[in-house]
Amino acid sequence: MTAGSTKKAMVYRFERELLAGFVDSANPFEGNQVQFLNREGVVQSIPLEQVKLICFVRDWIDGPAWQRNQYAVRPRQQGLWVRLKFRDGESLEATMPNSLAALDPIALTISPAETTQGVQRVLIPRQALETFEVLGVVGSPLKKAQSKPQNQLSMFD
Predict the structure, then answer these.
(1) Which of 15, 37, 94, 115 is buried most deeply by CB count within 10 Å?
(2) Residue at 54 is within a domain
(3) Alpha helices, H only, the chain
């Protein structure tokens, strides 16, 4: 683990306890494991198939990382509005970047509907998901060309 990229994190595991500690945010997955440094300073290797999600947080939290599993209305944050269904049957609506550059072959980076205070970023291993559904595209990365008013003089012709 490199010290410069190690961030506070909460690791939620399938049918296991919640872990609070530190994860390397630049490279959280090494092989099929997550390298995790607990608050006592012991490094643990957690098999990726046990990891449901990793929340990078400002301060450790007790309990769930979000208060609602779905949006009450259409989200305002630009990106893809998605519904994720985990292997344990739980589902979650979130937004994620609408960019091929943001796609990772191992995990998805999302923003849940209403996070618990302090959650900055959420990583979900792809193998933790049963289904992935795009519900909509919010906003557009393309800007519409603005037409200049007819009485406006052109400076550079």
Answers:
(1) 94
(2) yes
(3) none
Residue 13 has what pLDDT? 92
Query: Does residue 154 belong to any structural domain of this protein?
Result: no
User: Does residue 146 form part of some domain?
Assistant: no
pLDDT of residue 153: 73
- How far apart (Å, rounded) are the C-alpha atoms in residues 87 and 152? 59
Domain that holds residue 17: 3-138
Between CA 28 and CA 74 the distance in angstroms is: 31
Give the strand pairing for 6-13 and 29-30: unpaired
Contacts 24+ apart (CB under 8 A), 75-79: 75/113, 75/138, 76/138, 77/111, 77/138, 78/138, 78/139, 78/140, 78/141, 79/111, 79/137, 79/138, 79/139
Q: Which residues does 141 contact at the CB level (< 8 Å), separation at least 6?
A: 78, 98, 99
Give the chain's residues under pLDDT 70: 1-4, 67, 115-116, 140-149, 157
pTM (two decimals): 0.78
